Amino acid sequence: MNLDLNLLPLFLAVAEEANFVAAAARLGVTRSAVSQGIRRLEDGCGIALVTRTTRSVRLTEAGERLRDTLSCPMADVLSALEDVGGNANPHGVLRIAVTSIAEDFLSGPLVASFAEAYPNIIVDVTVTDDTFDIVAGGFDAGVRLGDVIEQDMVAVPLSGEQKEVVVAIPAYFEAHGFPTHPRDLIHHRCIGWRPSPDRAPYRWEFVQEGEAFNVSVEPQITTNDLRLMIRAALAGGGITFALEETFRPYLERGELVSILEDYLPPFPGFFLYFPSRHNMAPKLRALVDHVQRFRRERLRTKKGPLPELSGNGDFPHLI
Question: What pTM did the predictor assign?
Answer without folding.
Answer: 0.63
